[in-house]
Amino acid sequence: MESGLYNQKGFHHRPLPAQIEFRPAQLDDREAIAKLLSASFHRHLGTDSWLYWLLYLSIQSDLKQRLQRRKSGYDCWIAIADGAIAGVIELELKQDWPRQTAYPYCSNLAVAEAWRRQGLASQLLRQAEQTAQSRGSSQVYLHVLESNYRARSLYTKQGYSLQKRDRTWQAWMTGGSWRLFLSKPL
Questions:
Q1: What residues does the N-acetyltransferase domain cover (predicted)?
Q2: Domain ends where: 137, 152, 176?
């Protein structure tokens, strides 16, 4: 029997190697990142669904644009374990109305199924927080769905607190989950 961990659903979790490489994502990484994000956020559709693949192509296209532009304040960090992309997080400067100044915003935190529940998401989050802090930010922000209990637990353990609850028009139309806007002082 292969060594490792199994979660409640029976998925095999590989033990994290002693050395995880964290590096900025490159344009050549976009397909693997898009697959990871699609599997993490849209797996309920099933990989045989045309909608899943449409979302995958959309994610890949958006990611390509972000990686090519490399706007000031944008970073995409990946974690490499055993030669494969095991996790990803994006950090960007956002400016929403009525805010007058841009703020650091984390998004698309995802870890491959085989590497989950071993602290890799926390490490990726710390990488983004350190990047924001190195740029002079004293606070970092993110959204999480109210129904995503595991992510909410992670963010609470990492020191994030609720700023506001909001609902997108898509969620309102479909009866979907509220979004929670969280922040953490750095």
A1: 20-186
A2: 137
* Same domain flag for 33 and 94: yes
Asked if residue 13 is part of any domain, the answer here is: no
Indicate whether 102 belongs to any domain. yes
Residue 1 placed within a domain? no
pTM of the model: 0.85
Q: What span, in angstroms and rounded, lies between the C-alpha atoms of 80 and 3?
A: 20
Vertex 150, ends 133 and 39: CA angle to 5°?
A: 90
Asked whether residue 168 falls in the same domain as residue 120, the answer is: no
CB 185 within 8 A of CB 179: no
Give the integer Cα–Cα distance in Å for 153 and 64.
31
Give the chain's radius of gyration (CA, Å): 17
Contact, 7 vs 13, CB < 8 A?
yes
Tell me the pLDDT tens digit for each residue of 44-83: 777 778 888 888 899 999 999 999 998 888 999 999 998 9
Domain identity same for 29 and 87: yes
Task: Please name the helix (run of DSSP H) or strand (run of DSSP E) that holds residue 114, with its range, or none.
Answer: none
Residue with tokens 């924001």: 132
Specify the number of domains making up the chain: 2
Structural domain of 168 = 138-186
Which of 25-39, 96-110, 117-131, 166-180 is least confident?
Answer: 166-180
